[in-house]
Amino acid sequence: MSDQEFDPMTDHEYDGIRELDNRLPEWWLALFGITIIFGFIYWLHYEFGGGHTQVQELNLAMGVIQSVKGSGPSFSEDQLNALFTAETVGKGHEIFTAKCAACHAAEGGGLIGPNLTDKFWLHGKGTSADIFEVIAKGVPEKGMPPWAEQMTEEELVATAAFVHSLKDRNVPGGKPPQGEEAP
Ligand code: HEC
User: Fold this and answer.
1) Ligand 1 mean position, distance from CA 91 (Å)
2) Residue pLDDT tens, the chain, 183 long
3) Does the C-beta of 144 come closer than 6 Å to ligand 1?
4) How far is ligand 1, taken at its centre, from the CA of residue 166, in Å?
5) d(Cα 75, Cα 148) in Å, to the nearest integer?
6) pLDDT computed for residue 77 by the predictor
7) CB of 135 within 8 A of CB of 160?
8) Closest CA relative to residue 69, chosen from 167, 140, 117, 121
9) What's the rounded Cα separation, in Å, for the pair 162 and 156?
10) Is the shortest distance between the CB of 73 and ligand 1 below 6 Å?
């Protein structure tokens, strides 16, 4: 039917009110058609096409988190010790002041976080590798953030170098020891 012949008037009339049957705008019909096609493809994809359920998506995301945690930068004790120089300690000091002092105090004596200047460690034995690992991975459930995602490898090494340099300084006013005494 062409537009000229199209008569919107219907023969329905109630109390002098006449009903029109206007044509729907083309753009509206197009949109309607697209949603039907989209809905059909969506249904095929999730019912038969292997589309992930929410549980599968959660498991995938958790897998990614695990792999990020597991495959973060790692160094051997010797590699780290070679990287711990006066220069990296200096750079680490700046990072420590900016990012760690809020919880470990400016001198490392501890506030919310434990004293880093004593011989006692909650995680590991205070070796360079232990310190690097706890900084990189954190202890999220106890309030120590993981830093590997927020710092470059270089910054992590520098921060570990500074923390390592704090060992056995026993700054005055530090928190009482927590954890196991390192030999
Ligand atoms: C929001 C507070 C917070 C911030 C910020 C923070 N830490 Fe911690 N940190 C903690 C807490 C709490 C613990 C103790 C975790 C536990 O009880 O297992 C901890 C533990 C540690 C440990 C292990 C100590 C041990 O005895 O084994 C090291 C090393 C450490 N933090 C270094 C850092 C460094 C370096 C930074 C900065 C890059 C930093 N932390 C920033 C709260 C913090």
Assistant:
1) 18
2) 445 677 888 888 889 888 888 889 999 999 999 999 999 999 999 988 888 888 888 887 877 776 666 656 778 899 999 999 999 999 999 999 999 999 999 999 999 999 999 999 999 999 999 999 999 988 888 889 889 888 888 999 999 999 999 999 999 999 999 999 988
3) yes
4) 14
5) 13
6) 92
7) yes
8) 140
9) 10
10) no
Give the tokens for residue 182: 């390192």
Residue 111: which residues within 8 A CB-CB, separation 6 or more?
Answer: 102, 103, 104, 105, 175
Asked if 80 contacts 129 with a C-beta cutoff of 8 angstroms, the reply is yes
Instruction: Record the tokens describing residue 150, joined without a space.
Output: 């927020």
Take residue 98 and report the two structure tokens written for it.
Answer: 């900016």
The tokens for 148 are 């590997």
What are 114's two structure tokens?
Answer: 């434990």
Residues 6+ apart with CB under 8 A from 108: 96, 115, 116, 117, 163, 166, 169, 171, 174
The answer to whether residues 128 and 84 touch, using CB atoms and an 8 Å cutoff, is yes
Tell me if 106 CB under 6 Å of ligand 1.
no
Which is nearest to 175 in space by CA: 97, 131, 120? 120
